[in-house]
Amino acid sequence: MRYYSYKFLSEVSIDSLNCDNWAFDYWGKGTMVTVSSAASTQPTVFPLMQCGSGTGNTVTLGCFATGFTPSSLTYAWTKNGAALTNSIQYPPVQKGNLYTGISQIQVPKQDWDQRQTFQCAVTHAAGNPPAVSFQKPVLRVVSPNITLHPVWYGELGTSPVRLICTLSDFFPETLSVNWQQDNQPFNIQPIQRKLQVLERQEKIFGLTSEIEPNMTEWEAGSAFICKATHNNNDFTKMISICQIYTCTPPSIHIEIPSFMTVMMATSNVMATCSVHTVFNAKVTWQMDGRLPPSNKVRQIRNETHLIGTLTVSSREWKQLRLIKCKAEHRCLSSAEKSIHLSEPAATAPSVEIRRSLPELLKGNSAVLECDVTQLSSSDLYITFQADSDNISKELYVDLPETPGLHSITRRVTIPSNYWTNDTSFTCTVNQGFTRKFTSNSTGSFFVDPSVELLLVPSDVSGPQRLLCSGWGFNPQIKWFSESTQRPSSSSDISMDADGRVAVTSELKIPQKEWKTGKVFICEVSDKSLNKQVRQNISLCSACSSIPPSITVEIPSFKTVMSTSQVQATCLVRTAFDAKVTWLMDGRVSPSKTDRPDSNTTHIFSNVSVSSSQWKQLKHITCRAEHACFSLAEKTISVAEPAATAPSVEIRRSLPELLKGNSAVLECDVTQLSSSDLYVTFQANSVDISEKQYVDLHEASGVHSITRRFTVPQTHWKKDTRFTCTVNQGFSTNFVSNSTGNIFVDPSVELLLVPSDVSGLQRLLCSGWGFNPQIKWFSESTQRPSSSSDISMDADGRVAVTSELKIPQKEWKTGKVFICEVSDKSLNKQVRQNISVCSACSSIPPSITVEIPSFKTVMSTSQVQATCLVLTAFDAKVTWLMDGRVSPSKTDRPDSNTTHIFSNVSVSSSQWKQLKHITCRAEHACFSLAEKTISVAEPAATAPSVEIRRSLPELLKGNSAVLECDVTQLSSSDLYVTFQANSVDISEKQYVDLHEASGVHSITKRFTVPQTHWKKDTRFTCTVNQGFSTNFVSNSTGNIFVDPSVELLLVPSDVPGLQRLLCSGWGFNPQIKWFSESTQRPSSSSDISMDADGRVAVTSELKIPQKEWKTGKVFICEVSDKSLNKQVRQNISLCSVTPASSQIVSVYVEGPPLHQLQNEGQVTVTCLLVGPSLNDFSITWKVGGKEYSPGFHTGPPVSHSNGTETLRSSLNVSAEDWHAYKQVSCEGKHQCSSQGFEGHISKSRDLYPPTVKIMQPTASELSASDVLTLTCLVSGFFPSNVIVYWEENGQTLPSTHYTNSPAWKYTGGSTYSMSSRLNTSKSEDTESTYTCVVKHESSPTPFESTIEDVFAEVTYSKPSATLLQGSREIVCLVSGFSPARINITWLLDDSQDQLDYNTSEPHRGPKGKFSVQSHLSLTGVNWLPGSVLICRVTHANTTLSLNITKTDNLEHCDFFDDNTEAVVNQDMDVESWYMAFTFLLFFLIATIYGVIATIIKTK
Question: 634-656 burial, b for 16+ CB within 10 Å, e for fewer?
Answer without folding.
Answer: beeebebeebeebebebbbbeeb
